[in-house]
Amino acid sequence: MKSQQKCIVIFALVCCFAVLVALIFSAVDVLGEDEDILNGDNCSDICQVVLVENIPEDISISHEGTTSLTAGLHSLLDLAQKSVEVVSPWWDLNSTEQDARFPQAKQGRLLLHRLMGLKAQGVQLKVTSGMPPSPELELLSHYGADVRYLNMTALTDGDLRSSFWVVDRKHMYIGSAAMDWRSLSMLKELGLIVYQCRCLAVDLHRIFNLYWQLEYKEFVPAIWSKRLSALYSKDEHFSFQLNGSQATAYVSSSPNVFRPKDRTTDLEAIFRVIQEAKRFIYISMTDYLPLLSSNTHSKYWSRIDGMLREALILKHIKVRLLVSCREQTHPLTFNFLWSLQSLCVPTNSCSMEARFFSPRVRDDGSTQGVQHHRYVVTDNSVYIGNLDWVGKEFVFNAGAGLVVSEPGRSSGLSERVKWVFDRDWHSVYAKPLQPNKIPTCSSSTAVSKGHPGHTEDSGSPNASL
Ligand SMILES: *[C@@H]1O[C@H](CO)[C@@H](O)[C@H](O)[C@H]1NC(C)=O
Ligand SMILES: *[C@@H]1O[C@H](CO)[C@@H](O)[C@H](O)[C@H]1NC(C)=O
Ligand SMILES: *[C@@H]1O[C@H](CO)[C@@H](O)[C@H](O)[C@H]1NC(C)=O
Ligand SMILES: *[C@@H]1O[C@H](CO)[C@@H](O)[C@H](O)[C@H]1NC(C)=O
Description:
Keywords: Signal. Residues 1-32 form the signal peptide. Belongs to the phospholipase D family. Residues 439-465 are annotated as: Disordered. It is a single chain. This protein is of the alpha/beta class and 465 residues long. Helix content is 29%, strand content 26%. The chain has helices at 2-31, 69-79, 106-116, 135-142, 152-155, 198-212, 266-276, 303-313, 332-342, 391-396, 413-425, 461-464, and strands at residues 46-54, 67-68, 83-87, 91-92, 124-130, 146-150, 164-167, 171-175, 179-180, 187-195, 238-242, 245-254, 264-265, 280-285, 288-289, 291-293, 298-300, 318-324, 352-357, 360-361, 367-368, 370-371, 374-378, 381-385, 389-390, 399-405, 430-432. It has a 19-stranded mixed β-sheet that branches. One 2-acetamido-2-deoxy-beta-D-glucopyranose (NAG) binds at residues 48-51, 243, 413, 416. One 2-acetamido-2-deoxy-beta-D-glucopyranose binds next to strand 1 and helix 11.
């Protein structure tokens, strides 16, 4: 009799435990928020893409063939009916004090006002941001925005570098620009806006949702909700019509630990794009530095550098690297680029060239057109991401990317991005790398305010100047 009772008690306990476990797991799913998809039926597969750029007014580079970033972002807000989700590494749109010096700076303030007015139009603005809370985001929450903060220091000891928008889970923007008045005026930025592309937008929204759920978390969860799993990956592309031509695409994210089921990392995406190039790989980057440095020590980080060497030497693919030349450019950048370039001397079948994009220095010492690009274009694909090609970016920081491939077509998006690359490459601001000569990227040091603490911190607002 006694043992039968014991049995019942144990059975009841086991049941309780099972129910509890089930509840925990379903809670994870409940947190996965509202239904975002799509039983395959309403996955529109006819999408439009525009290349958006910010080119400062007094930089003599043509805007032809691309849309202005400001106009692009406003067009997204015009379309918004239900929700606007924004992630930006930092917020600094209020340019009141800068307007006199940089007339275009008011664009930042106009965008901020637009975002402040969304709630009144019945559109929900959701923002994820790194710490610490910014006054601008406090203002936006005062105007009805939902703002969530990620403590990246606790999560990965890195920073949030992601920069993208998802509008109505239908349209999206991804690119180099932060929500910063400088990105709409004096920096040279490039991004993509994809319209009417529900499935791809939902996949990017899932990355946004992942950040959304990490608010105030001190550690990265070991399991992720099913609702955060990737819809598409490097092995399972989204196939669709992009501007009337057949294309495939997927989104990628970083770092490795922010990786639900099936999500391709940025590094894997870049690897795939480099690997599938047949003729050329053109790269436009703010920083290129194959080092993984921490406070205590640095080591060589070969991942991307190694891929490029392999493409050059073993596959004879032509590589061009356009790197930003600015005050914060690490001096070793030149050594590493020179080392890549000398790999091909004097081999005929190998072609590698590096150039530096120097901004224009105005009379008052301010710089216009610091190149802030982060993309790679090959003969068949484009990758646009949020991270610089520096070791610690991929290891610790959060970012996202978009890969679009157009096999067999040469007049689509890749062709347009290549056109932009060529335009910049042949512009007066691109200076070739010369042997034994380190270019001076900080010619404006006499007037600029140095931020020594930020030298490697390519993403901070101060460093962007
Ligand atoms: C799919 O889209 C059509 C038209 O846009 C709409 O009428 C229909 O309700 C949608 N179906 C589902 C399952 O959402
Ligand atoms: C922008 O900054 C100025 C001061 O620099 C301040 O007076 C103004 O209220 C700010 N505007 C917004 C919308 O925050
Ligand atoms: C973020 O996490 C770090 C490390 O756990 C902690 O020291 C810091 O106080 C946290 N910041 C905030 C604002 O909670
Ligand atoms: C795609 O089509 C739109 C509208 O027709 C056009 O404005 C845009 O420039 C095209 N995009 C590309 C990359 O060609």
